[in-house]
Amino acid sequence: MEKYKLVKYTKGSIILKYSQKAKDCFYIISKGSVIVYNDFYNNSHIYKMGHIIGLIASITKEPYYSTMEAAEDVELWEIKIENINRINNKHLIKRISNHLSSILELWLSKYYSLIIKNKIDLYNKEDILIMASIYKENGFIDASHKLCLSYMNLLSKDYDAEHLNNIKKFMKTLIKSKEPELIENNSYKMYKGYCIYTELEATNRIYYIKSGKVGIYNIADSDYITRIIYPAQYIIDAYSPNLEYKTLFTTAIVLEDSVIDILTKEELIKILHDNAEFRFQMIKMTSMKVISTILKIKSVKKTNLKDKLIVLIYSILKIETLFDEKKYIKLYYKIKDIKNMIHDDADTDDIRAALKNIDYLEFDNFNNIIITDTDEYFKEYESYTK
Question: Which pLDDT tens digit goes with each residue over 62-73?
Fold first, then answer.
């Protein structure tokens, strides 16, 4: 670590402060421990030697989402964000990648624990026919079929013949989507409606969206929840989560014809090591996933419906504009998606009315949500949060 600056803080010193503008660097704890806490989620953590702090806010240029205080005298390696492109240590690259995946999983588990009313659903999946019917009723036919197929392959031995026959009968009502076409090497053309994987099993693969859009969903509280819709240049990690929350397992559905690369984690780490530009993009993208999840938590915590929606739309736009700074955006989210993301008791008419009262947001003739000027929306959001 001789390339990086060693900094020291005495016990009780504030290293990073919640809501303040992020510095142009992050830290790795070399000695001592740091306590982390914030104003919007009532818990704290202790980070010890080897833990990375400050990276997510710094690389996304978002305000710090937690305060970090020296729990004892600490020593930290300070790394400038600009030096990420110069890292050639594969072990450090893997540590950063694992750190970001772990933090994302942690915040996702907090998000789901807030929005899911039936807490049993955090640890158990519903009956397979209920889940498959929900996807079918919402137009995700291939997801419904693949969910049943995964169930038959993995869990059929645990149920009686009548239940299995009911599943087989249900599957006969479903039409499979067109299978992907190999373009070259590990790159595939995937067609609208195709289900890449279901929440019943992890594929242990990484999916890089070169073009198109992919929606990430799961079933809880007898309905589907839209976790996020990813545009081009995003990576989807379909490896098994470390935490036990069943809601961390998801279903991925192609929402428009897409070109997607399929990788193993080892192949991804090699690309991150060899390609500095892609490494920076990957770290920034995963960091923005964390920021977007935290914003959703803040949205859920709001009491006023319009306030909830302002923050939620902001969280969606941070994903949409990370690699494509377009001003005018048609969102793929339906009003029902929005409702399920905040799990609010308001009906869809109330949500639509509240959305129409938000500046720079409107609906087209097909009820698609349109952001007319993302730059102005971001300025309004900054004024709103001051």
Answer: 999 999 999 999
